Amino acid sequence: MAAKSTPEAPAAAAPPARDGTAAHGAPPLFRPGLEGVPATQSAICDIDGRQGILTYRGVPVDQLAHHSSFLETAYLLIWGELPTIFQLNAFQQDVQMHRRVSFRIRDMMKCFPAGGHPMDALQASAASLGLFYSRRALNDPQYITEAVVRLIAKIPTMVAAFQLIRKGQDPIQPRDDLAYSANFLYMLTEREPDQLAARIFDACLILHAEHSLNASTFSARVTASTLTDPYAVVASAVGTLAGPLHGGANEDVLEMLEQIGSPDRVEAWLDQAIASKQKIMGFGHREYKVKDPRAVILQGLAEDLFLRFGHDTMYDVACRLEEVAADRLGPKGIFPNVDFYSGLVYRKLGIPRDLFTPIFAIARTAGWLAHWREQLGANRIYRPTQIYTGSPQRPWLPLESRPAAL
Ligand code: ACO
User: Fold this and answer.
1) Do 172 and 63 fall within a single domain?
2) Residue 382, Cα to own-chain centre: how many angstroms?
3) Containing domain of residue 286, as a range?
4) Do 220 and 255 reside in the same domain of the chain?
5) One domain, residues 202 and 288
């Protein structure tokens, strides 16, 4: 499906033909990072990077963040429409019923090194679900529904379980009387969370749930296109999300703010960072040339939290950095992205820094699954071409005839 161009979707300039040769005899275009290359058609999410508008299935994300719940938003993304009350209740109940993970998975996690990164633990645990639910029936709607529910339900349980296990404690069982986000915070801290905290955390999940063909979603679609199981799809996406240029940036932002230390040091720090060609974490986005709309909403949520639970001086550093960077990086279209304020929210909620990206993964599982379904609906395996830059053909040489290494 990726390579076909239809009258509704005009082709990019000089695309490679389906057999990999250049169109009209021209050399194939190479765009590092596939910038500007449409790699799929999708009806899930739209980004207007010039106006800073993000919609899920046509619904603006700010409306969802203010009025929806994460599970309702996940339903919208995955099934394409906002659920009726009946559908929402059924989905919530299904997810609630599948929150527990097998004791075998918990035992497996107990063997993970406590010092390992929780994203690695999550990737391994997500992949292990494929062992426990090994039936693969991609044409069976019931199978698809069960896999969706299982992954949405169990990923938070696995993130929370590893957090307790690495502290030497036993994981806590989910609580059926708590909603999705409240239950996750409970499993993490053993305390029933404050209602505002749970509501703000839920809004964070909504804001991170989907973002078109970013690196991890692309990875999910490539994996899905081989018709493997959905657990492998999510595990591959988790691995891709972990990198510091993608989901991992939210950890680095806090480190950077702490390194700067105070608002009066921002200007000198930024000038030095720009002079040494350092990337400013939490800034810049391939799609946005204005401030990421999710950063705008997250900043508001951070302020709500500070009003209720006390101020964070790192927020003053962040605001000053945004202000100074507007002069220095703004003209290049580089502004705060979703990761810039999310870490400050999670820190105020008392969440350890290396769980920020796993929390991102909890949210993005909804988007990955929406893309998994969409990919299966019109599948063609991803198999792009390349431009070979290696040696011309040459013979194999016996060891004694090879030139000595320099
Ligand atoms: N700080 C300083 N300069 C930047 C930044 C930044 N954060 N981002 C981009 N630039 C500059 C680059 O140096 C480059 O400048 P040049 O043309 O003078 O060489 C230009 O902008 C283009 O940058 P690229 O890295 O080519 O942009 P790309 O679209 O490939 O990368 C990315 C986007 C990876 C997000 C980049 O902006 C970045 O590394 N940001 C910091 C990490 C980060 O916050 N990642 C989270 C992104 S959101 C997410 O994944 C959930």
Assistant:
1) yes
2) 21
3) 249-347
4) no
5) no
Establish if 363 belongs to a structural domain: yes
- Integer angstrom CA distances of residue 392 from 21, 128, 389, 395, 406: 19, 43, 9, 10, 21
Distance (Å, rounded) from C-alpha 68 to C-alpha 73?
7
Task: State whether residue 123 is helix, strand or coil.
Answer: helix
Which residues 6+ apart lie within 8 Å of 324 measured at CB?
266, 267, 270
Q: Which residues are registered as beta bridge partners of 54?
A: 47
Q: From the CB of 249, is ligand 1 less than 6 Å away?
A: yes
301 C-alpha vs ligand 1 centroid, how far in Å? 25
* Same domain, yes or no: 88 and 139: yes
Q: Is 241 in the pocket of ligand 1 (CB under 6 A)?
A: no
Q: How does pLDDT run across 329-387, given as a tens digit for each residue? A: 999 999 999 999 999 999 999 999 999 999 999 999 999 999 999 999 999 999 999 99
Q: Is 285 a catalytic residue?
A: yes
Same-domain check for residues 136 and 190:
yes
pLDDT of 27: 65
